[in-house]
C-alpha cells in the first residue's frame, strides 16, 4: 500500500518535472528569437 502511494507521488513528480522542463525550453527559445530579432533590427538600421 505504501508503494502504491509512493509510485503515485513519483508519477506526479515526473509529470511536473516534464512540464517545468518544457516551459523552460520554450522560454529559452523565445528569448533567443527575441535576441536574434533585436540583432537584425540593429543591423538593418
Write the layout of secondary structure elements.
Elements: H1 2-44
| Number of E-state strands | 0
Radius of gyration: 20 Å
What is the 3D form? rod-shaped
Point out poorly predicted stretches: none
Terminal Cα separation, in Å? 67 Å
Average residue pLDDT: 78
Q: What order do the SSEs take from the amino end to the carboxyl end, as H and E?
A: H
Helix content: over 70%
Number of domains: 1
**Structural class based on helices, strands and sheet pairing:** mainly alpha
Major sheet description:
none
Number of helices: 1
β-strand amount:
under 5%
Question: How do you describe this structure in short?
Answer:
The chain has 45 residues and is mostly helical. 96% of the residues lie in helices and 0% in strands. The chain has one helix at 2-44.
